[in-house]
């Protein structure tokens, strides 16, 4: 089996990074919901038996902030991967070495990256 072309590798990288970003967004929503639930628990006076509800809330908020910190570097990596893929697509369109399917997949990944940009 021949090794995948640079176009296929770059397409896979863009798709993987987009999937990773979507996963982090989903994770952030869940973490924010947990922090909000903990805040409500404290406000309603339902402190847990150990008396560490405030500490747990602080930990939840720290996790939320750490997850938010992931987005900027991840978006930078996505942008770099998109630039590389755009260059490869342009190059392959000129040379005609890539199959139509590879080019279609690459263009679909580029379109997806541009529509999901935040």
UniProtKB/TrEMBL annotation:
Compositional bias, Basic and acidic residues, is annotated for 34-46
**Which UniProt keywords are present, listed alphabetically?**
Chaperone, Coiled coil, Cytoplasm, Cytoskeleton, Microtubule
Q: Where mainly found?
A: cytoplasm
Q: Which family does it belong to?
A: Belongs to the TBCA family.
Q: Pfam families in the record, alphabetically?
A: TBCA
Read off the InterPro entries from this record: TBCA, TBCA_sf
Record keywords: Coiled coil included? yes
**Coiled-coil annotation: which residues?**
75-116
PANTHER family named in the record:
TUBULIN-SPECIFIC CHAPERONE A
Listed under GO biological process in this entry are: post-chaperonin tubulin folding pathway; tubulin complex assembly
List the residue ranges of the region (Disordered): 34-53
Protein name in the entry? Tubulin-specific chaperone A
The cellular location(s) given in this protein's UniProt record come to: Cytoplasm, Cytoskeleton
Q: Which domain of life is it from?
A: Eukaryota
According to the record's subunit comment, the protein's assembly and interactions are: Supercomplex made of cofactors A to E. Cofactors A and D function by capturing and stabilizing tubulin in a quasi-native conformation. Cofactor E binds to the cofactor D-tubulin complex; interaction with cofactor C then causes the release of tubulin polypeptides that are committed to the native state.
Q: Does the keyword Coiled coil apply?
A: yes
**One CC-aspect GO term:** cytosol
Q: Which organism is it from?
A: Trichoderma harzianum CBS 226.95
A GO term for molecular function: beta-tubulin binding
């Amino acid at each position: 089996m021949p090794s995948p072309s640079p176009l296929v590798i770059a397409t896979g990288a863009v798709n993987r990074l987009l999937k990773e970003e979507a996963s982090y967004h989903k994770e952030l929503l869940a973490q924010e919901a947990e922090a909000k639930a903990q805040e409500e628990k404290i406000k309603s006076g339902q402190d847990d038996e150990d008396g560490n509800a405030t500490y747990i809330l602080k930990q939840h908020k720290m996790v939320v902030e750490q997850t938010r910190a992931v987005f900027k570097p991840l978006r930078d990596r996505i942008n770099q991967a998109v630039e590389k893929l755009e260059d490869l697509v342009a190059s392959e369109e000129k040379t005609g070495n890539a199959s139509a399917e590879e080019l279609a997949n690459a263009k679909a990944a580029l379109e997806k990256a541009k529509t999901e940009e935040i």
